[in-house]
Amino acid sequence: MDTIEGIRPGIEGRLERVVEGELLTRHVGGKGTFSTPAMVGLMEITSHRSVERLLPPGHTTVGYEIHVRHLAPTAPGHTIVVTSHLSEVKGNKLYFEVECREGDTLLGTGVHKRAVVLANF
Questions:
Q1: What φ, ψ does residue 36 adopt, rounded to 5°?
Q2: How far is the first Cα of the chain from the last one, in angstroms, to the nearest whole number?
């Protein structure tokens, strides 16, 4: 797959969630806090969903690399917004800049890489 028609740099994704349930880690004590694995998972979902409708029939994307810094905590009940920005396309490889915010506070930032593959499952 040399190129993926319709998938171009500039595509953006956005996901808003309330920090609760499976998004919390409780081993830190108290009511818990927004977990790093949950943040990474939401960054992956947001990136995938931003291009999902543009994929060729029978294809999906899979994450293969992520570099993220979790910069600030978030308490249960607060609303976070995860965004993705497709910055580069190289063949079947997609490069996303990802962020997570609570209001004006930057909670996490990084780069996420996905590959377009045939969905054989």
A1: -60, -45
A2: 19
Contacts of 120 (CB under 8 A, 6+ apart): none
d(CA 50, CA 13): 5
| 102: amino acid identity, one letter | E
Q: Where are the domains of the chain?
A: 12-118
- The tally of CA atoms less than 13 A away on the side-chain side of residue 100 is 32
Q: Pairing mode, if any, of strands 93-102 and 105-118?
A: antiparallel
Does 12-118 carry CATH code 3.10.129.10?
yes
pLDDT digits (tens, 9 = 90+) for 77-114: 999 999 999 999 999 999 999 999 999 999 999 999 99
Rounded Cα–Cα distance for residues 46 and 26 (Å): 24
Backbone torsions φ then ψ of 59, nearest 5 degrees: -115, 160
Closest CA to 86 of 11, 27, 5: 11
Distance of alpha carbon 61 from alpha carbon 57, whole angstroms? 12
